[in-house]
Automatic annotation (TrEMBL):
It comes from Modicisalibacter xianhensis. The keyword Transferase applies. This is glutathione transferase. Gene3D superfamilies: 1.20.1050.10, Glutaredoxin (3.40.30.10). GO terms for molecular function: glutathione binding; glutathione transferase activity. InterPro entries: Glutathione-S-Trfase_C-like, Glutathione-S-Trfase_C_sf, Glutathione_S-Trfase, Glutathione_S-Trfase_N, GST_C, Thioredoxin-like_sf.
Length: 218
């Protein structure tokens, strides 16, 4: 089964698509990524997309004849199913800690940093396509709260959970990379110097060279 092609369905600018990419890069898993399947473009939220994911989300992992949704589940599957360094820990406690932070990041941190804050700048829904400043201001306290949570969890470690890169870092990296590069967020991230150093370390990883990239027009 490991010889079957791995395709990550979704746009490469998606934070969660990038998390799965980082997992593949760290494991040395060959993969393709994008919104085409077998050379054919799949319309976002169209019937074929809905058939792949019942809630019309990304990413979707296609591995041979298998289909899998939800980023933490996809990453765990890839880590368990392919050889290479473990990205989940060496025992039940370490794996539980990584799993816990994957859930926190995918649910609460993503909602605060990406869904409620950054996407208001990327896909503004105000009159005439304007940014809704009231939504931005309302989202900022939760952004600060989540940054404080992650700053405390990181402490003096180089990585978020263990002493090496794990799946939790794969989920954290893309969203923090976007936030710390976002000029309007400069005042928000100023209070998180450990996270600033952390995301800079993650950007230097070989895996990040092909994943944490700027995409024109994204």
């Amino acid at each position: 089964m490991n010889n079957e092609p791995v395709h990550i369905f979704g746009p490469q600018f998606s934070t969660f698509v990038r998390s799965v990419q980082l997992c593949c890069e760290e494991k040395g898993i060959p993969y393709t990524v994008g919104t085409r399947i077998d050379g054919e473009r799949v319309e976002f939220h169209g019937p074929e997309h809905q058939a792949l994911h019942p809630f019309g989300k990304v990413p979707v992992l296609l591995h041979g004849g298998r289909r899998l949704i939800e980023t933490p589940t996809i990453c765990r599957y890839l880590d368990d199913n392919f050889p290479g360094v473990s990205l989940q820990g060496d025992d039940a406690w370490q794996r539980a800690q990584v799993d816990q932070w994957m859930a926190v990041l995918a649910l609460y941190v993503d909602d605060a940093l990406i869904r409620r804050y950054l996407l208001e700048f990327v896909f503004p829904k105000g009159e005439g396509g304007s940014i809704r400043q009231d939504k931005v201001e309302a989202a900022q306290p939760q952004v600060e709260k989540m940054l404080g949570l992650l700053e405390a969890q990181l402490g003096d470690r180089e990585y978020l959970v263990l002493d090496r890169f794990t799946l939790a870092d794969a989920i954290a990296a893309p969203m923090l990379d976007y936030l710390f590069k976002h000029p309007p967020a400069s005042a928000l991230v100023a209070g998180a110097p450990r996270l600033a150093a952390y995301i800079e370390r993650l950007r230097q990883l070989p895996a990040s060279a092909t994943v944490l990239v700027d995409i024109q027009g994204a």
